[in-house]
Amino acid sequence: MIAGELGHTVLSVTQRGIKPKDMSEKGQFSLDYSKYQLVDSGDFIMNHMDLLTGWVDISCMNGVTSPDYRVFQSSNPEKYYPGFYRYVFQTCYQQRIFYGLGQGVSGFGRWRLPSRNILKFLCPSTSIRNPIAIASYLDAQCAKIDEIITQAKASIEDYRQWKASIIYGAVTKGLDPNVEMKDSGVEFIGSIPAHWRITSLKRICQRIKDGSHFSPETTVDGFPYVTARDVHGKGIDYSQCRTVSEENFQNLVKTGCQPQSGDVLLVKDGATTGRVGMMTDDMPCVLLSSVAMLTPKDNVLSEYLMWLIESEVLQFQIRKSMAGSAMPRTTLTKLMAYYAIECPYQEQCMIAEYLDKECLHIDELIAKKNLLLLTWKSTKKSLIYEVVTGKRRVEDTNQMTIAILSPEIMRYRKALLMLRVLDLLGTGVRGRIQLQKCMFAAECLLNMPFHTQFIRYEHGPYDPDLPNIEEIINAKGWYTVLKGSPVSYQKGKQFEEGLREYMDTFSEIDLKLEKIVDF
User: Fold this and answer.
1) In terms of Cα–Cα distance, which of 438, 517, 422 is closest to 474?
2) CA angle, corner 65, sides to 64 and 68, nearest 5?
3) What digits encode the pLDDT tens for the residues 417-460?
4) Is 244 in contact with 222 (CB distance < 8 Å)?
5) Which residues does 135 contact at the CB level (< 8 Å), separation at least 6?
6) CA dist list (Å): 287 to 50, 98, 250
7) For labelling alongside 465, which of 28, 31, 99, 428 has CA 20 to 30 A away?
8) Closest CA relative to residue 262, chosen from 286, 297, 224, 216
């Protein structure tokens, strides 16, 4: 359903869940969000436009999303438990099952899942309680894995910050702790050794140029064509480079797009703008315009220039100059004007040797953490696949455990508890005060797993989620909630069915609950 009005939260589908779109970020924006489709909490949102990088998930909030996405819900949540099918559909993305049903132009990121194919898609079905147990098991296991992944990412970020601080300290303060210092005159650089000087990048380089501004046709065999993805520290892995024909290669060489050994490479366009590398050989190759090549002057060491550009001295200037740009990029004109630090050649050699050694150690630590990340991500992916396809058996868990693990089931179980409390209170109950006191006492004294955030009012505890619980007992036909002042409750046609479900779930605590309510 199309919203038809503004003011709704705009939701984005990401592989980290359904997120509110940050309207302050760069990217694509709609001219009219009133034409977006409505999303209710609990709805699935599927990006079927790109089956390679797209995703599907359940929204935990109301809002709107792109009219090009698919928004749907389970026809019978109790029989076809959404939490289970979320894992099923996500596995279909990860294992490229949906990809095999797609149509379009995959090379251009437009490989879509047509409506007729998704409607004909056969979904696994199992007993009513088993999907809940499976989803709850996966929720618990994936939460543990996600915590490990989060910690690994935090460690990697710590290592990167450590590396950045070492590089910055070396290129701005040198290696002699007793050297005389002076104010650099540049606020973000601070003090530097008294015999060093601030200059511009163009004054320590013979040449600052970028690669080809047109994309030649690639060939199976030919000359390496270096792009942003190939720039990673010292050296180029030519086996991963695309190639161009000899004719195109020679034409690009004539336009000055061929780097030489000792040239420093800098990604100047795209998401990886600021990444630095260095040519360490004379392999015949050419560059794309997204990569700039900087040839240092004779009194500037290539390795020092590389570390200087990788330091926050240059990275800060690159980020600052990109602020407000729709696309991350810097220009040759900006590059030439950036501040740089010039020091004696002998000190450059010492700084480069020091950073080579120190940063190699940190890079090895980061590599180990990245390997750990890949291992746990693969483990999570395999776990989900094996469980939802039945290759790994999940024993049915008891209902209390499920309630702890699944917020949706937790709310449903709380509704069952409310049904019984209302039943024990009898027809004389009027208003919510007595009901809430009993619910609060039951949760505390019986150690119920709901973790309700009760608000303490003058007349007693109040559960902010109460209207949602009332909505469940009303919709199930267990009780009719009669709005008014005070609110009253009348047994519904499905009360006995609900009571039987309550006893199946909470029979072991029922005698204690009776005593609590009688008290």
Assistant:
1) 422
2) 140
3) 999 989 988 876 667 888 888 888 888 777 776 767 777 666 67
4) yes
5) 81, 83, 84, 86, 87, 406
6) 30, 37, 12
7) 428
8) 297
Higher-scoring residue by pLDDT: 164, 413:
164
**What b-and-e string marks burial along 407-442, b requiring 16 or more CB atoms within 10 Å of the CB?**
ebbbbbbbbbbbbbbbbbbeeebeebebbbbbbbbb
3-class state of residue 280 by DSSP:
coil
pTM for this structure? 0.65
- Rounded distance between C-alpha atoms, residue 162 and residue 418, angstroms: 54
The residues that bridge with 200 in the sheet, in sequence order, are: 339
Residue given tokens 């609060």 in the structure block: 440
If 0-12 CB within 10 Å is exposed, 13-18 middle and 19+ buried, where does residue 124 land?
Answer: exposed
By three-state DSSP, how is residue 389 classified? coil
How far apart are the C-alpha atoms of 258 and 211, rounded to whole Å? Answer: 8
Q: What is the DSSP string of 311-330?
A: SHHHHHHHHHHHTT-SS-B-
Contact 436, 461 (CB under 8 A): yes
Q: What is the pLDDT of residues 47-93, one digit of tens each?
A: 888 887 889 999 988 999 988 888 998 888 878 888 899 999 999 88
- Residues 6 or more apart from 447 whose CB is under 8 A from it? none
Based on C-alpha coordinates, what's the Rg of the chain?
Answer: 31
The backbone torsions φ and ψ at residue 269, rounded to the nearest 5 degrees and listed phi first, read -135, 145
Q: How many CA atoms lie within 13 A of 110 on its CB side?
A: 4
CB 353 within 8 A of CB 346: no
Alpha-carbon span 277 to 264, nearest angstrom: 6
Whole-angstrom CA distances from 271 to 267, 274, 330 are 9, 9, 11
Residue indicated by tokens 């007993």: 127
- List, in sequence order, every residue forming a beta bridge with 243; answer none if it has no partner: 219, 224
